[in-house]
Each structure stands twice: as C-alpha cells, then as structure tokens.
C-alpha cells in the first residue's frame, strides 16, 4: 500500500491532497505545525475530523520530522511553506527558515531513513518576469523601475520603447526569482535536486500557478489576489485591483492542483534513480487579474472591482507558463471549467482568519 506523508496537510493545498490520497485507499500521515499565525486556533478542523480512511495527524514542524516518523513512508509530499510576496523585507528571515531550512532538515531525515521519493510544492515565481518576444529575440526583460511604475507604465518594453509580447514560459527556460519568496522556492528545488544526486532519490517539483479554491486563508496579505478579492467581497467591499488589472496569470482550481500532486505521487517511481523533474501546473488558459476580479464579483453578486493603479515592488507583470510537459510525461491536465470553478470559489468555505497581526501562510 502507498503510504504518503503530507507536510502542511491541514493547509490550503495540502488538505485537498490528503482527501484525494485517502480516496485512493492510501495510508496518509499528516504533518502540520498548526502555527498560530496561520491557523485561527490549534484545534483539528472539521473537515479533517470527518475523514474516512487510514490517516494519522502529527502536530509538529516539518523540520522536525524524524527518521522514525518516516518508517514505512513510500513518498513525502512536501506542501508546508511560507507563501506570498511578503509585507516587507522584515519577512525575509522567516521565509528562509520556513522554506529553505525546513526543506533541508526534512530531506536530511529522509536520507537517514532511506525514504527516496519526494513530491515538492514549488511555484511559477521561480521564473521571475515571464517570457517575452522582443522583435526577433525571445527574452526575459529587466525588472520594472519605480519611475515607470509610478508613472503608470506597467508593461515591460523593448529597446524600441514598445511593449513586449508576453509568451508562455516552459520548464526549459531560465529561472530568475525576483523577490525573497521566489528565491526560497527556487532554493527548495535546488536542495531537493542535490538530495536526489546525493542519495539516488527521485523528486518531482510542481510549479503552481495562481491556485484558488476552498480553504484558502482569509484576511492575510500573504495568500494572493484570489483570497484578497474574496475577503473584500465577503465584507461587501469592491476588490482593489493593482496596476491596470492587465497582469496576465493562469488561475487554477485547487482540486486540479491536488490531482497533479496525486498523479506525481503515482508516477515519481517511474523516474530513474537520482532524477529531479520540474513541471508547470496551470489551467492552460491565460487570464488577467482584472478578469478574475470581475468574474468573482459577478459570481458573488458583489460590487464591481476598482482599478487602483497601485503597485508592489517585486511583483511581475506577466507570468504564464505552458503545462504541456506534465500532460505529456505524467498524463495530467486541469479539468475544472473556469466558470464553475469561480462559482464554487465564490461560496466555498475559507480558512478562518488567524488572530495574529503578522500572518504567514502555508499552502
């Protein structure tokens, strides 16, 4: 029987992975720290109490997973991480400790026990700004300047001063993280790659795009625009859309992302010893942040979004990636219809607001 250990298994994406694993008849060990700045309380959520199947919960940080706890574990699905862009640079130390340090400690325990299969939650942020066509050249542009952003010039431009044409980025293209969170996600991949080389283990990293759905955390600046928009609408407020709302993204339903993890768990054994593979995980359809806000507002019957022209340093303008490689190699494609997914999200249960004023989040 497959025995999967899911870190961050009480969180947003991890909870859906746990449910899917149990539906397949697998044995599941859930590891979650129940950090008070993430969870509204340290109690067991109702959805977990209602689970049917062979499941255990260990309340501890993923960095403290011991080789003993890994006994009989077939594969580790590492979802625990501090996510989002962050409020300011004061968050940097927590990002590094929570993401890089925790992953390294977990992999060390896996090496000690001989647990040789890993599925890692990564992110499209490792690419930085997306891929663009500049005349006859394909390139990633430099970071946008404060001067341009303050002037409302949001589109990256080429040498001729004209906006570049955004393209889909693939796993073969260069990574160029542009904020602390992105740096730590790429570092998680790199330390995992090192682990595969050192131990002969096999790892799959899933580079999530903009995930939305049930159990997203609310009331936190770390959870991304989908949660922020939903939180505003729940309070009867118009979603505040930064820049001009034209930022291109790929919004993907959390249930599809959980399916991608389950497929990776099933297929990681097929890799050669010492292999590391990264895959983009998106819906396959490009949409704008403004479009998402408008669709969600309509689904909730709430006020129309307001485009503010505000911006955040470290945000990228366009980032959408091709998800063809995971379809070809692992046989996974997103299957939820856009309108149905947004309609479900409009009324889906959200994770209660944590009490702390300095939140962080785990997927």
Write up what this structure looks like.
There is one protein chain. The chain has 363 residues and is α/β, with parallel strands linked by helices. Helix content is 32%, strand content 18%. The chain has 10 helices and 16 strands. The chain has helices spanning 12-23, 46-49, 92-113, 146-150, 180-199, 225-234, 254-267, 289-300, 324-330, 338-347, and strands spanning 3-7, 27-32, 55-59, 75-78, 117-123, 131-134, 137-139, 165-167, 202-208, 210-212, 240-241, 248-249, 251-253, 276-281, 287-288, 306-307. The strands form 5 sheets. Strands 3-2-1-4-5-9-14 form a 7-stranded parallel beta sheet, with helices on both faces. The protein has a 3-stranded antiparallel beta sheet with strand order 7-6-8, with no helix packed on it. β4 (75-78), α3 and β5 form a beta-alpha-beta unit. α1 (12-23) crosses α7 and α8 crosses α10 (338-347). The longest helix has 22 residues, at 92-113. The protein is globular. The two termini are 26 Å apart. 47% of the residues are buried.
Structural class: alpha/beta
Number of helices: 10
Query: Helix amount, in percent?
Result: 25-40%
Q: In sequence order, what are the helices and strands, one letter per element?
A: EHEHEEHEEEHEHEEHEEEHEEHEHH
Distance between the termini: 26 Å
* Uncertain segments: 357-363
Query: Overall 3D geometry?
Result: globular
Strand content: 15-25%
| Overall radius of gyration | 20 Å
Round the mean pLDDT to the nearest integer and report it.
Answer: 92
Strand order of the largest sheet: 3-2-1-4-5-9-14
């Amino acid at each position: 029987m497959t025995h999967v250990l899911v870190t961050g298994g009480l969180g947003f994406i991890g909870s859906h992975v746990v449910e899917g694993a149990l539906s397949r008849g697998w044995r599941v060990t859930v590891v979650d720290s129940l950090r008070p700045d993430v969870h509204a309380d340290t109690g067991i959520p109702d959805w977990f109490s209602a689970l049917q199947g062979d499941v255990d919960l260990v309340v501890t940080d993923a960095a403290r997973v011991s080789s003993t706890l890994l006994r009989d574990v077939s594969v580790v699905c590492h979802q625990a991480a501090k996510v989002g862009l962050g409020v300011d640079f004061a968050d940097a130390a927590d990002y590094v400790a929570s993401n890089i340090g925790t992953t390294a400690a977990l992999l060390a325990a896996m090496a000690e026990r001989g647990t040789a299969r890993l599925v890692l939650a990564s992110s499209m942020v490792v690419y930085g700004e997306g891929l663009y066509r500049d005349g006859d050249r394909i390139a990633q542009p430099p970071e946008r300047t404060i001067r341009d952003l303050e002037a409302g010039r949001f589109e990256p431009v080429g040498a001729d001063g004209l906006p570049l044409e955004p393209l889909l980025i693939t796993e073969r293209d260069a990574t160029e993280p542009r904020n602390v969170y992105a740096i730590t996600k790429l570092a998680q991949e790199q330390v995992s790659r090192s682990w595969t080389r050192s131990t002969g283990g096999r790892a799959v990293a899933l580079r999530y795009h903009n995930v939305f759905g049930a159990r997203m955390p609310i009331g936190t600046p770390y959870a991304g625009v989908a949660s922020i928009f939903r939180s505003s609408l729940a309070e009867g407020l118009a979603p505040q859309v930064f820049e001009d709302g034209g930022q291109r993204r790929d919004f993907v339903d959390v249930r599809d992302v959980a399916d991608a993890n389950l497929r990776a768990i099933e297929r990681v054994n097929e890799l050669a010893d010492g292999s590391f593979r990264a895959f983009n995980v998106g819906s396959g359809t490009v949409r704008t942040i403004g479009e998402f806000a408008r669709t969600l507002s309509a689904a909730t019957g709430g006020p129309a979004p307001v485009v503010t022209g505000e911006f955040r340093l470290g945000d990228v303008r366009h980032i959408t990636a091709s998800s063809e490689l995971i379809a070809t190699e692992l046989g996974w494609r997103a299957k939820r219809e856009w309108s149905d997914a947004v309609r479900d999200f409009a009324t889906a249960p959200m994770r209660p607001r944590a009490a702390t004023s300095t939140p962080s989040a785990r997927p």
